[in-house]
UniProtKB/TrEMBL annotation:
InterPro entries: AAA+_ATPase (IPR003593), ABC_SmlMolc_Importer (IPR050093), ABC_transporter-like_ATP-bd (IPR003439), ABC_transporter-like_CS (IPR017871), P-loop_NTPase (IPR027417). This is ABC transporter. Residues 12-255 form the ABC transporter domain. PANTHER family: PUTRESCINE TRANSPORT ATP-BINDING PROTEIN POTG, SPERMIDINE/PUTRESCINE IMPORT ATP-BINDING PROTEIN POTA.
Length: 374
């Protein structure tokens, strides 16, 4: 199939964008103040690139997306597409595709009627015969061959979102804006659809901005991930770089790093204990020994290394163990320097049995599951 995206010019450029909502509540209440949902965001998305906006609920992801779409006015800053400033350009003149959590399909139209909707009128209008061909092509693209005459109310949630995706791609938008398109689906379906969505965006050359609060989804779909908090972008990087070097503790926490230990201080976790692991050489090298450097401990960064009697490491009390995705995850209570709390550890030797609940074990870091912060 030929490229869908226009691939022209500079892609999307968001400069110092601010989105503010007027007060909605009574005087004296919190809602009596204006809300700054997007607070000076700069973001460039190259033609053909897919960027995920990732962040906790209320951080401003949707507001930023809606401002790009033209659904929300900017209080300050600018949005440009392919070098063209979009101030004053209404939603339907921007030529962007939009896809939301609930596909918002037309219930009275069948699948083909929904997918072909955007090709019936306006700038993307094509004759009926060409429309039928394009609809068939799109249904093939999203894995729904043979569904053209199905009523949309008879479809599963996943099928409905596939129809919504096909519909939003039909007019060959240069930029597709997706707001939590998979979050109404259950996890396993979401994982499958996220991979399919990436494939469709890449194969059509569509530039995409994808809003999600799910790290796995962001990492699956996007070339780069923009982590947002309280209206600001904290870090924009490829999934690999983000995971390997989170810019701050907030970013690391949001990615799922579970604990933070000094990278340059005493070594209670036995990383540098010379026990043959070579841990310190690998794990802490990235911090360069900087004073105050911090190491983030990831979900696979903590190992249950023995029965609690050996030297080094810190003691932990086993709360429970469970088999997850083929490996034993042990929930432990331990103090890595910031107080005793629940942490997840893996078995150092996957061949051994899971420890009993209530047992005391020793925990060590696996530097491969840790990352320097900052
Ligand atoms: N129409 C509105 N009027 C007033 N405040 C709003 C409006 N829409 C959003 N907000 C506020 O702006 C902030 C950002 O909201 P936004 O929906 O952009 O966040 P989000 O990161 O997309 O959240 P979620 O993941 O929960 O959808 C929140 O504090 C929200 O309450």
């Amino acid at each position: 199939m030929s490229g869908q995206g226009t691939r022209d010019g500079a892609g999307l450029e968001v400069r110092d964008a601010v989105v503010r909502y007027a007060p909605s509540g009574r005087k004296g209440s919190r809602a009596a103040e204006p809300t700054t949902a997007v607070d000076g965001v700069n973001l460039t998305v190259a033609p053909g690139e897919v960027v995920a906006l990732l962040g906790p609920s209320g951080c401003g992801k949707s507001s930023l997306l809606r401002a790009v779409a033209g659904l929300e006015p900017l209080a300050a800053g600018s949005v440009a597409w392919a070098g063209r400033p979009l101030a004053g350009v209404p939603v339907h003149r921007r030529g962007f595709g939009l896809m939301f959590q609930e596909g918002q399909l037309f219930a009275h139209r069948d699948v083909a009627g929904n997918v072909g909707y955007g090709l019936e009128r306006g700038d993307a209008a094509v004759p009926a015969s060409a429309r039928a061909e394009r609809v068939a092509e799109l249904l093939g693209l999203v894995g729904l061959e043979g569904y053209a005459r199905r009523g949309v109310t008879t479809l599963s949630g996943g099928e409905r979102q596939r129809v919504a995706l096909a519909r939003s791609l039909a007019p060959r938008p240069g930029l597709l804006l997706l707001d939590e398109p998979l979050s109404a689906l259950d996890r396993s379906l979401r994982e499958r659809l996220a991979a399919d969505l990436r494939e469709v965006l890449v194969s059509t050359g569509t530039t995409g901005v994808f809003v999600t609060h799910d790290q796995d989804e962001a990492f699956t779909v996007a070339d780069r991930v923009a982590v947002m908090d309280a209206g600001r972008l904290l870090q924009v990087a490829t999934p690999e770089d983000l995971w390997a070097r989170p810019a701050s503790r907030t970013v690391a926490e949001f990615l799922g790093y579970q604990a933070f230990v000094p990278a340059d201080g005493p070594d209670p976790l036995g990383v540098g204990s010379g026990d043959g692991d070579g841990g310190n050489d690998r794990g802490l090298a990235g911090t360069g020994g900087t004073a105050g450097a911090v190491l983030a401990v990831g979900p696979a960064g903590l190992l249950v290394s023995d029965d609690g009697t050996g030297p080094g490491g810190v003691p932990g009390e086993v709360v429970t163990s469970r088999l997850r995705r083929g490996r034993v995850e042990v929930t432990v209570l331990a103090d890595l320097g910031e107080g005793r709390r629940r942490l997840t550890a893996l078995l150092a030797d996957p061949g051994t049995d899971a420890p009993d609940d209530g047992a005391t074990v020793r925990l060590r870091l696996d530097p491969r599951g840790c990352a320097p912060v900052g």
